[in-house]
């Protein structure tokens, strides 16, 4: 297949530090290229890929040293370039969440598929979807679909990670001081305050490795920074891939105390890759991703989280790794995307003007989860 992937321009592919969407796009493009597909990646020129790179901006927006940039203008320029080259590809896979590509490709929605990597409960999205109803979508969890049930969902593919990049570490030394980990963004919807309270009440120290974005600086300064004492609560800053591996594999558990409809949560499966259990709040896709009592615990309160910290010893870190390998490998993710691509191309060839038929409830759920998780209401 000749496949174009269109990534957001906020981070390089893969990102140097924080950036889940761009990391998944990187794994997907490299894996498809390794399987012999002709893959072109539209991204910033500081990206590194085994696909053919179509550079659309000299550097990712977040790392641009210039004081003023325009994300809207940058993405409009990229989309116009993709449209200009559209005839080169069998399928164009967009990884953009707010549908800005729809007007550019309204003449050929059947040639596209969109994986929105973010939340879909923004008030303006249903109106936009009503204007362009024929664009096919692939969700990253069944829960993600709930705000847009009328969308043309053709598949659900959970994220996956290359097993070779995430080797299972040796058993943790009994002499190593246990700690709880918080990894991600220091924002209100990630609720680091819950993580701090859980750690303090459980008696374990908390290490925080997180990005503080421009929108989150006031919240961090006013509400979180005063709680960081450098001993029981330690902020280590934003970490790269090597530091992240050490950080996660050394933790007694990852705390994921979110307060928003998280569509996936890449850090959750990154922890599982190292056999590290996850204590996650019952929000968003967490009941789909965490096997309660096996790879971690799903909780509804700080009280419940503190209680589960005391039960971490009954979880088998080797079994957590086995769950990760079975459900969240990059090979499984690429298999699932290939199957959706094949369906879309077959439908387009049979009836180029036809709306793609639904792809069951999802290909990945049947393969990975069996019937354990119900489709979204």
UniProtKB/TrEMBL annotation:
The keyword Cytoplasm does not apply. One of its GO terms (molecular function) is glycosyltransferase activity. Residues 173-305 form the Glycosyl transferase family domain. Keywords: Transferase. Residues 352-377 are annotated as: Disordered. Residues 18-124 form the Glycosyltransferase subfamily 4-like N-terminal domain. The keyword Transferase applies. It comes from the Bacteria. InterPro entries: Glyco_trans_1, Glyco_trans_4-like_N. Pfam families: Glyco_transf_4, Glycos_transf_1. Signal peptide: none annotated. PANTHER family: BLL5217 PROTEIN, GLYCOSYLTRANSFERASE. This is Glycosyl transferase. It comes from Kumtagia ephedrae.
């Amino acid at each position: 297949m000749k496949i174009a992937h269109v990534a957001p321009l906020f981070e390089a592919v893969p990102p140097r530090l924080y950036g889940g969407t761009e990391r998944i796009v990187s794994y997907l493009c490299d894996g498809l290229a390794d399987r012999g597909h002709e893959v072109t990646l539209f991204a910033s020129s500081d990206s590194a890929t085994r696909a053919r790179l179509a550079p659309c901006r000299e550097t990712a927006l977040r790392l641009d040293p210039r004081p003023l940039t325009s994300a809207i203008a940058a993405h409009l320029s990229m989309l116009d370039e993709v449209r200009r080259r559209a005839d080169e590809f069998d399928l164009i896979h967009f990884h953009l969440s707010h549908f800005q590509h729809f007007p550019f490709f309204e003449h050929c929605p059947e040639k596209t598929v969109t994986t929105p990597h973010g939340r879909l409960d923004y008030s303006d999205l249903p109106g936009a979807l009503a204007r362009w109803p024929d664009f096919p979508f692939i969700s990253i969890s069944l829960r993600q679909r709930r705000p847009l049930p009328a969308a043309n969902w053709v598949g659900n593919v959970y994220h996956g990670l290359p097993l070779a990049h995430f080797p299972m570490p040796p058993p943790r030394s009994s002499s190593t001081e246990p700690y709880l980990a918080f990894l991600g963004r220091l924002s209100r919807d990630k609720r680091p305050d819950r993580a701090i309270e859980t750690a303090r009440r459980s008696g374990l120290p908390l290490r925080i490795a997180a990005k503080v974005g421009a929108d989150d600086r006031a919240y961090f300064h006013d509400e979180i920074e005063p709680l960081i004492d450098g001993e029981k609560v330690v902020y280590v800053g934003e970490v790269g891939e090597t530091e992240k591996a050490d950080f996660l594999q050394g933790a007694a558990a990852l705390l994921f105390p979110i307060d928003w409809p998280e569509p996936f949560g890449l850090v959750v499966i990154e922890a599982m890759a190292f056999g590290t259990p996850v204590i996650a709040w019952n929000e968003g896709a967490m009941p789909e991703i965490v096997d309660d009592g096996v790879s971690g615990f799903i909780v509804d309160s700080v009280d419940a989280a503190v209680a589960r910290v005391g039960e971490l010893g009954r979880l088998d870190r080797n079994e957590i790794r086995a769950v990760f390998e079975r459900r969240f490998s990059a090979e499984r993710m690429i298999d699932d995307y290939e199957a959706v691509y094949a369906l879309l191309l077959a439908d387009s060839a049979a009836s180029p003007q036809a709306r793609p038929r639904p792809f069951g409830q999802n290909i990945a759920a049947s393969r990975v989860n069996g019937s354990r998780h119900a489709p979204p209401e």
